[in-house]
Amino acid sequence: MPSRTLGRSSLLAAGLLSLASTVQAAAPTAEDALKLAPVQPGIEYDIPPAADAKNCKINPEKIGKVTAWVVRDPNGVILRQFSDSNGDNVVDTWSYYKNGLEVYRDGDLNFNGKADQYRWFHTGGARWGIDKNEDGKLDAWKQISPEEASEEVIAALRTKDATRFARLLLTADDVNKLGLSKELNDKLTARIAEAPKTFAKLAGEGKIDAKAEFADFGGLRPGSVPAGTRGSTKDLTVYEDVWAMVLAGEQPQQVQIGSMVNVDGSWKLIDGPALGGGNAALAGFFYDSAGAQPQPQPGQEQLAGNEPTEEMQKLIEAIQKVDDELASAAEDKKPALNTQRADLLEQLAGIAKEPAEREQWLQQMSDMISFAVQDGSYPDGIERLEKLEAKLAEEKASDDLRTHVEFRRMQAAWGKAIAEPKADYAKIQEAWLKQLEEFVDKHKTGDHVAEALLQLSMASEFNSDNEAAEKWYRRLVTDFAKSPNAAKAQGAIQRLTSTGKKIPLKGTALQGGEVDLAQYGGKVVLIHYWSSSSPTAKTDAETIADLFKKYGGAKFDVIGVNLDYSKDEVTKFLAENQNVRWKQLFEPGGFESRLANEMGIITLPMTILVDDKGDVVNTNLQITELEDEIKKLMESRVANAAPAK
C-alpha cells in the first residue's frame, strides 16, 4: 500500500517535493507520482491499471500563476496535480482527480512538507478539514455540508469514535458567534454539553454495528432566522429535524440528528443522535420560542419524523446492497447497477404517503442519475432523466420538482461533454451558458432558476460583459429576493455600477480601531479583497507592500478586506508577513460575510481603486496593473490641485 503520509522523505523519494529544474533535481516519473495516496482514507479517485500507468505522462505545467507537476493519462485526462502555491519551488498542494475533475486535495499551508488541511471537491463533496498537529488526523471541520455532517455522525457511531462525533458539535466560540440572547445561549450550551453523553450511550448499546451504512439524509428545508428573533443580534441559517437513514446490520433504521446551524460555512450539531423519530431529546431549538419541541399545526405532519414502512425498509435495504456492489464494481458493471438504483428510488417515490416525500425521493433519484452520468458510470442516465421530465410534465407536477429534474439533466449533459477526451471546452461552455439562458427564460420560480441566474451573472463577469452580468444580477434580486444569493447579487450590482460614485466600506480593523472609507478623503485608496488561502496571497501582499512603501502616507492608502473563514488564518498570515502594514477588515463568514456580500465579491483577489475625491475609478484591476493606475491618479491629483495662495 502507498504511504498515507506526506512527510518530506516520502515526497523526495517520489521526486515530488521539488519543482526546481531537472538540473537541480531529477524529474519524477508518472509511475512514482501515481504511488502517492491521499492522507485521508476513503477517497474515490482514478487509479489507472499498472499497464496504463506506464503510458501516463508527468510534466511541469503552469496553471495560472502556479507551477505544478501534472500527471495525465494516455488520452491527456488529468489524474494528479502536485503544485507549488507560494513560488518557493517546493510542492505544497497534492490534488487527486476523478474523470478529469479534482475530487480531493491535501494542502501544506505552513510549507513544512506536511499536510495540514484536507479538502473535498466536485463529486467528492464539499468538506474542508483542518489538521493542526499534522498527524494525518482531522482536528476540526472548517467547512462541511449538512449531508456530510450526518454521514460523519453515522461513521462515528459505527466505529464508536467519540472524537469524530465531537468535532461536529458547536464549540463555545461558535455559540458566542451566533448572537443569541443570554437565556438561549445558556440553553444551547446546556444542550451541547449533553450531546457527548447521548452519543456514548447510543454507541455503547451496539444497535448501530460496525457494518452500518449511511443510506439517506433528510429534514425540513434549511431556513433563515432573522436578527431580532427572541433577542438575537445576527441572522442565522439553520436546519431543524435532520435525520439519517442507515442500514444497521440487516435492518434499515432512522437516526435522528436534530438541529444544525451554519457557522462560517460549517454545519454544526447541538445534540447527540437518537434512534427513531420524534425523540424528545432532539426537540427543535431555533424555530420554537423556547427551544422546546415544535408542535405541528392541525392537519400537518413532520415529514422528518415519519417512520419508514416495512415496504420502504425493504427498498432502502435493497438500495444499500446496490451501493455496496457499486463501491467495488468494475466500470462495465456500474451502468446496470445505477439503473437498478434509480428503479428502486422511483419505487420509493411511488409508495410515498405525502407529496413532499414523493418529491424528495424523485429529487434524490435525479441527483443520483446526474452525478453518475458526470462520473461516467451511467451513460444512459440522460435519457432516463428526459423520460422523467416528460412524465412529470404529463402529471403537471410542481414547478420546483420539474425545474429540479430539468436542471440536473442539463448538468449531466454538460458534465458528460466536458469529460470527453477531446472536449472543446470553449464551445461546451458557450453551449452551457445558452442553455442556462433558455432555462431562466422558460422558468420563473424555483431554487435552480436562482442558481442558474447566479451562474449566468458570474460567467458574464468573467467574460468582462458587465452589462449582461448586471442584467442577470438584477433579475436574481427582483425575482428571488429571499434567495441566499440575493444579497450577494445586490452587492455585485453596486460594485459593477460604482465607477464614478462613492461606495460604503466600514468595519473594525483587526489591528484595532474603526475603518470608514468616507474618512479617507484626499487620498487615493486601494481596496484589496483577499484570502490567505489564495495561491498568490503572499506575492500580492509583497507587491502592495512595495506600493504602500513607495506612495503611502498623505496621498495614498490601502484597506485590506480579508475573506478567510477563520480569524486565526488571517492573523497567522499577518504575523508571518510583517510587511502588511495597512488596515485589515475581517468578519466571519468568508464569501458569505457582510463584507463580501456588500460588494458582491465572487472571486479573489479583487481590487477596487478609489480616487482622492472618494469616487471609484476601477472595480477590478489586476495586481500587475496597480502601479500604472496609481501613478495616473497621483499625477491627476497634482494637476488638479488648487494653486497655493
UniProtKB/TrEMBL annotation:
CDD domains: TlpA_like_family. PROSITE patterns: THIOREDOXIN_2. GO terms for molecular function: oxidoreductase activity. Keywords: Signal. GO terms for biological process: response to stress. Residues 497-639 form the Thioredoxin domain. This is Thiol-disulfide oxidoreductase. It holds the Pfam family Redoxin. InterPro entries: Redoxin, Thioredoxin-like_sf, Thioredoxin_domain, Thioredoxin_ResA/DsbE_sf, TPR-like_helical_dom_sf. Gene3D superfamilies: Glutaredoxin, Tetratricopeptide repeat domain. Residues 1-25 form the signal peptide.
